[in-house]
TrEMBL record:
One of its GO terms (cellular component) is extracellular region. This is Pectinesterase inhibitor. InterPro entries: Invertase/methylesterase_inhib, Pectinesterase_inhib_dom, Pla_a_1-like. Belongs to the PMEI family. SMART domains: PMEI. Residues 14-166 form the Pectinesterase inhibitor domain. GO terms for molecular function: enzyme inhibitor activity. Keywords: Disulfide bond, Signal. The keyword Signal applies. The keyword Signal applies. Pfam families: PMEI.
């Protein structure tokens, strides 16, 4: 007979398996989704090791929200205190600030919608955040400026892509 202590090792591997399986499935479905980024990012939060597919979607959205909030603070700091950026970069940062302010609100709304089973609405808001990060990055490219937000834009885009993929997986199950 197995005691709860005996069951711990077997069940402790399940969440990592679901993370790896989900990231593999999503990276195969969406060519822009990076498997390594997905797996590493999701596993960083301890709650991801004791959750299900719905929980992984929330983890991805919460990570995107945290990153978007941090990026917004970074943008505000650059706008206020950076003396080396030119006027075009500052204009792009100002645009990105608006996009990220809107993105933070959309991610909060997306989490709320997702938690109440409104996957379609959550997906629309997450997609809008992805579009905002891409627009932010393109603004710098169009001005032929080096974006100081490339890493942040990429990370948030990827996290949103993970959440969106999981929402699609959940929708196909129902």
């Amino acid at each position: 007979m197995l005691t709860p202590k005996d069951e711990t090792p077997a069940t402790s591997f399940f969440p990592v398996d679901i993370i790896n399986k989900t990231c593999k499935t999503c990276s195969e479905k969406f060519s822009v989704l990076n498997y390594s980024f997905c797996s590493k990012s999701i596993q960083e939060l301890p709650v991801s090791h004791v959750t299900n597919l719905q929980g992984l979607a929330v983890v991805a959205m919460e990570l995107a929200l945290q990153n978007a909030t941090n990026t917004l603070s970074m943008i505000k700091e650059l706008l206020l205190n950076n003396k080396t950026l030119g006027p075009f970069s500052l204009a792009c940062l100002s645009d990105c600030s608006l996009l990220y302010s809107d993105g933070v609100v959309k991610l909060v709304d997306a989490v709320g919608a997702f938690l109440t089973g409104q996957y379609a609405n959550a997906g629309v808001w997450v997609s809008a955040v992805m579009e905002g990060t891409a627009t932010c990055e393109k603004g710098f490219q169009e001005m032929e400026e080096v974006s100081p937000l490339t890493k942040e834009n990429y990370s948030i885009f990827q996290l949103c892509d993970v959440a969106l993929c999981i929402m699609n997986l959940l929708a196909s199950e129902s």
